[in-house]
């Protein structure tokens, strides 16, 4: 007999086909966003039109899965109507929850659509019981997606002091910046991760091969990595680039290309009171979603049944073929 | 097979896929006018794709020719085949340096995402473009997939 309540498995989808793949692979819920700047994965060719989301919601609901709309970037003055329309459209389509980061949008949802279930995005950066309870009390937030800066014991303490559910990231891309606060892309390209919804916009990324099978990665005017022949690559983000500093040459000054993988901590997270386990990767392919969602479906079901899951295949899908348990295991995870 | 003999086959394939998946062009947006040069290592020729619904093009080009392009994608033929068929993750292939991309990154990201939104595999679509010959064509593609699948 298991000691756990089986958590909800929350999976990513960047396209309608990915959403169907996630549902078919065993997702309890799928999160996705509209085309445009209103969500934090505003990449070319990605995301949903209103018509696509409508069909996708029907597909998921027919298979007893939920759909969560990520409207989790920060509107700026003069542009709030785009975010409000996204909220209105999502509500009209019968979305199961709206994921919001901006406090103004949280107020808009609470006042305009008081019956709509509201989740607080990781982008809101709410990590203390005081901050979380503020959103719960003011805007009736039902779930918080915790920033990836807390240890499991800290998550347990947060859980014991708040009046809403906790969703925690368990796999995928991870940065060492506090979510919703990073301006590195903005600094180099003029495009904001938090307000335009795109970190390292593809329009500013350039890969320059050399004759020795090396590769220089550039973002805007800056070389952010030089990869030698045989070395693995990572996402073209400033935080995972290599730099020369006064103390060290050609090293990962911020963080190595690496993926979060909390498979081994799943029982601890479940004991800490985490309601939902989130897989990152709306920008990834259907092949990734199929593999990762299936693996986590098996892992969660196995742990819930008191068995040990086989988790060896997930490493092949990690960035740089390296994995970390990040701050969940230790505050100094480097 | 000489290049001139391949061109009508490639034209047939690209028109057939475009007809089956008009939504692909919406996802591509402005990138549909870009020229994608595909270097499948081990093949005796290069492929040049322009996924513009008004001016579709998929042609074979000599490896010795000077070919203007916006994006160059290169990798082993079977690796590229498995990628467009959604059998392997393109980001993982890129991290592992099994595929390389140079040129207009925005265009290749849009193309990757547009192709990834197709439920049917591209291999199926290519096979059906050959009408009564779809069986043998599909079998050949599956055999190529199996060869690389057993090596990875």
UniProtKB/TrEMBL annotation, chain A:
Q: Which GO terms describe its molecular function?
A: peptidase activity
Keyword entries, A-Z: Hydrolase, Protease, Ubiquinone biosynthesis
Instruction: Set out the biological process GO terms recorded for this chain's protein.
Output: proteolysis; ubiquinone biosynthetic process
Q: Which InterPro entries match?
A: Peptidase_U32, RNA/ubiquinone_mod_enzymes, UbiU
Presence of the UniProt keyword 4Fe-4S in the record: no
What pathway annotation does it carry? Cofactor biosynthesis; ubiquinone biosynthesis
Enumerate the Pfam families for this protein. Answer: Peptidase_U32
Domain of life here? Bacteria
Name the family: Belongs to the peptidase U32 family. UbiU subfamily.
Its biological purpose is as follows: Required for O(2)-independent ubiquinone (coenzyme Q) biosynthesis. Together with UbiV, is essential for the C6-hydroxylation reaction in the oxygen-independent ubiquinone biosynthesis pathway.
Q: How does it assemble?
A: Forms a heterodimer with UbiV.
Put simply, this protein is called: Ubiquinone biosynthesis protein UbiU
**Gene name per UniProt:** ubiU
From TrEMBL, chain B:
SUPFAM superfamilies hit by this protein: SCP-like
From what organism does this protein derive?
Maritalea myrionectae
Domain SCP2: start-end pairs: 35-116
Q: Which InterPro entries match?
A: SCP2_sterol-bd_dom, SCP2_sterol-bd_dom_sf
Checking Pfam families in the record gives:
SCP2
Q: What is the designated name of this protein? A: SCP2 domain-containing protein
